[in-house]
Amino acid sequence: MKTERDIASEPQQSQAERDIVSRSISRVRLAGVGIVAGVLGVVATIVVAASAANSLPSGAVDIGTVAAVVVVATLVGLALGVRYRKQWLSPALVAGVLVGVFLFLRGAAFLVEGRVISYPLLFGLPGAAVAIGVTLVAAWVGSRPRVARGLSPSQLSPLARGGLVVAGGWTVIQLLFGLGLAATAGYVLNNTFAGTLIATVVGFPVATLFAVQYGRRVGIDRDDWDYRTTVHTVGIGLTGGLLTVLAVQGVGLLVTSVAGTDAAVTTFGFLLADLEAGVWVLALFALAHGIVAPVTEELAWRGVVQTALVESWGPTVGIAVTAVLFTAKHVVLDASLARLPTVLVLAVALGLVRHRWGATASTVVHAVVNLTSVATLAILVFG
Q1: For the segment 269-309, what is each residue's pLDDT rounded down to a tens digit?
Q2: Fewest C-beta in 10 Å: which of 68, 122, 189, 246?
Q3: Which residues in the chain show pLDDT less than 70?
């Protein structure tokens, strides 16, 4: 028979058991967060390191790829530190170790395959140590109260937070389609560029749908996109597009004269070869790059992201941040630092046109620039 003491102690025991279970769940959840962050860190490291390798002179590539690890590990660590503060160590350690182990094992795989390790600093102990160490240090910094308060999303207005979420969500969706659909379609068609274009035709509308739906959650609806389809705005778009083409081409020539042609050849060499596969690739290029990309990117980036950030931070900061995020997305996902100056010029032009004349005009500008690049590459390939 239970005594009164036994009965009185049951709730306390039950509460203690619940505390143990809660702590166990918390540890599992933190480990899960670390694994997710580590996987994202691996993918981001590959993409950013590839961008550095494609853009830097051969003598600087090894150091450049390790710098890519530093950049990614810093961002991952800061995010974990800001989000989890007093519990930052567990997820940061898991994430850093996951990236570090991947880099080390990738180098070991080169040796097993009997090949020389490409970028030995990256795929070796230095890269692994940097990944683990920088992630932990950045997480510790992010967990400091002053830093955490300054970087916490809770400090942002709902609109600003919504704009940043849309920008990040678009980037992740495009990355997933690039890793999945683009790679699969490219393999089946034996044409890497065609696979990328198919991923654009399918993935960009999906990313835009996400942007529109999330934008509505924070109060950005159709009227806020600011489409003004008139003869005047279309004319502004055509004129602005031609001027932007000249500006982009001018910056591109300047970059080439300073950095040489190696980066451009690396960036566009495979593209030209894949275009030679047939006119069907050119037609797909015109559809994806000349129509789908301008229409969807302008709705998501200028219609939703820029609207949110301009209303939150004013025109100067809102346009500038949108342009930087848009440029970073292109540079990282295209794995080409060589494109940074030209894409930034385009992004600023699109932002200014959208703010002054609306999204119809910026869409036309974007389409003119992209279709001009399609025509230029078609002339190079088909004469």
Answers
A1: 556 667 777 788 889 999 999 999 999 999 999 999 999 99
A2: 246
A3: 1-25, 55, 258-273, 335-337, 383
Structure tokens at 265: 């050849």
